[in-house]
Amino acid sequence: MNPCPKQVTILVPVYRNAATLRSLYDQVRAAVVEVNASARFVFVDDAGGDGSLDIIRGLAQSDPDLVLVVNRSNCGQQHAIRKGLAHAAGQDVIVMDADLQDPPSAIPQMLTTLWDSGADAVFATRVGAYQSRFRMASSHLYRALVCRMAALPRGAGGFVALRGELAARLVASGNSRFHLAGMIGCHATTIESISVRRNHRTAGRSAYTGRMRLTTALSNFACILEERLRYGSL
């Protein structure tokens, strides 16, 4: 007899993702069943105004475990993640984008690696070309710097499985900034990774302009430095 399914929090920051939310929800629910788990969704709607909120409310009508966090004004993806982590309820967490560029099919391997290895976090490191050449080149440079600063596996990004205890530590940090991957690198004792081919965007486009990407990168670097200084790891 199989043991009762383990419930896992699926944290999804949402910004103008109405076109992919229902498919994401269905694919994730099917994926976690492969490892005898069940999905408890935490959606953080970041004031996109495109109908995403109505879709999530519709999903919640048939899913009493679904948690909806609504930002009245846009606070950005990373701070949306921080707010969502506060609702993890001590469970292990999968953090992923809402646009299906993070393939739900990778979740079983991520959870199996997390549970079998005893690691604090497992990153789905990005492989393949999933955006323009310029964006790919600048993303590679940015991630190389982040990974060096925060002792992360190459290609680490925002698609990650982490222990509930680690999620609680990240939420409790007094850092005014927040960068998920960098914070994990500062707090986790053991980090594992699996290679995952990131999908091309099938609907909509990135909300980040070139200027926003630069501003966000500088803020993320500052977050990592502050966290290392705060906890004496620099």
What is the radius of gyration?
17 Å
* SSE-based structural type: alpha/beta
State the total count of DSSP E strands.
7
Order of helices and strands: EHEHEHEHEHEHHEH
Number of helices: 8
What does it look like?
The structure is a single chain. This protein is an alpha/beta fold and 234 residues long. It is 42% helix and 18% strand. It contains eight helices and seven strands, in the order βαβαβαβαβαβααβα. The chain has helices at residues 21-33, 52-61, 77-85, 107-117, 133-150, 164-172, 180-187, 210-230, and strands at 6-14, 37-45, 67-70, 93-95, 121-127, 160-162, 191-197. Strands 3-2-1-4-6-5-7 form a seven-stranded mixed sheet, with helices on both faces. Strand 2, helix 2 and strand 3 form a beta-alpha-beta unit. Helix 5 runs parallel beside helix 7 and helix 5 runs parallel beside helix 8 (210-230). The protein is globular and about 45 Å long. The model has no long low-confidence stretch (mean pLDDT 89).
List keywords for this structure.
234 residues; alpha/beta; 8 helices; globular
Q: How are the elements arranged and paired?
A:
Elements: E1 6-14, H1 21-33, E2 37-45, H2 52-61, E3 67-70, H3 77-85, E4 93-95, H4 107-117, E5 121-127, H5 133-150, E6 160-162, H6 164-172, H7 180-187, E7 191-197, H8 210-230
Helix pairs in contact: 5-7, 5-8
